[in-house]
Amino acid sequence: MTSTPPADDGRGTPQACYEAIKNEAERVLVGNETIIEHLTIALLTRGHVLLEGVPGVAKTTIATLFARTTGLEHRRIQMTPDILPADITGTTVYRQHVGEFDLQRGPIFANVVVADEINRATPKTQSALLEAMQERHVSIEGETLALPTPFLVVATQNPIEMEGVFELPEAQRDRFQFKLTVDIPPRSDERELLDRFDDNPELEADAVEQVIDTDDVFAARAAVSSVYVAPPVKEYILDLVTASRTHSDVAHGGSPRATLAFLHAGKARAAIHGRSYVIPDDVKSLAVPTLVHRLVLSTDAELGNVSPASVVRDLLEMIEPPSGELDASTAVGDGGDDAG
Fold it and tell me: N or C, which end of the chain has less CB nearby within 10 Å?
């Protein structure tokens, strides 16, 4: 952990945490505000994030910036075909001079773990990482060890590499709360990037400072858990996930884990935008990153070059969102708080 920043009243609210992280990250990062938003949501809801993008679009930099602004301990694991599960979780080493085995914890024992190019690791190693993500503990030589709290895995993968990669199967992709695409920036953002690095060639993730601490994260998590979700919004979530299972282009749709991901992420998104209640737009904005990696397309859809993202957008057009008042007045009537 880095040094704790000075106390700041109200910093532990979800909205204050998000604004502080975003503003500090933007000292280095150009664009990609949506990525920071979803990383914050994942941190506040115990989720994990899969970042996909071509080389050079700052996937690893984004994850490192995010970790540094939170002050959380972070480790980077470069995934390769020869990396073993023990290289991630740890192992025991015999110390001959004392005649004892010494436990060596692996890089998984950090608050933010960046797994670079996860699809380069073998399925066995991928499974070890993803099991730790789900169980939040690992077993080393028969001893079960809890992972740190908070615990967030940010995995990256390159969509254009075809040789020497092992695609994550659907059951493992389902462990990620979100899959986000880091695109080539628009020309205006890339020009700003040029200007920044022209003025400061040494600009990198180390330039940002810690702006929140673990107490703020825990306080924000508690606030997120109390966000109100009206019954019509819950039905809207169920309608979307159910429709993903019956869409003509889909062989396998979203699981119940996807339904819960919508619920938790919707509450966090509402909270970081200053609301104590979830609205349909929260659900709609989360639909693509929540569902896109969970859909298994039919053979005909794959042959027709249909993309999972286009299927999700089709679902959003098909399913009518709830109408009527779902704001603070509704929430108060059912036990919620007035957001103002």
Answer: C
d(CA 76, CA 56): 17
User: Domain coordinates of the chain in residue numbers?
Assistant: 31-217, 226-333
Say which amino acid occupies 51: L
Verify cis geometry, omega within 30 degrees of 0, for the bond prior to 231: no
Q: Which residues of 135-153 are buried (b: 16+ CB within 10 A; e: fewer)?
A: eeebebeeeeeebbebbbb
The length of the chain, given as a count of residues: 340
Average pLDDT over residues 243-265: 96
pLDDT band at 159 (very low <50, low <70, confident <90, very high): confident
CATH architecture for the domain at 226-333:
Orthogonal Bundle (1.10)
The per-residue pLDDT for 199 is: 86
Beta-carbon contacts of residue 262 (< 8 Å; ≥ 6 apart): 237, 240, 241, 283, 286, 287, 290
Across 61-75, 216-230, 281-295, least confident range: 61-75
Q: Check residue 164 and give its pLDDT.
A: 65
Q: Is the pLDDT of residue 324 over 70?
A: no
pTM confidence score: 0.89
4/291 Cα distance (integer angstroms): 37
- Residue 170: count of CB within 10 angstroms of its CB: 14
CA distances from 213 to 5, 12, 73, 134 (A): 7, 9, 11, 24
| Cα dihedral 162, 166, 171, 176 in deg (nearest 10) | -80
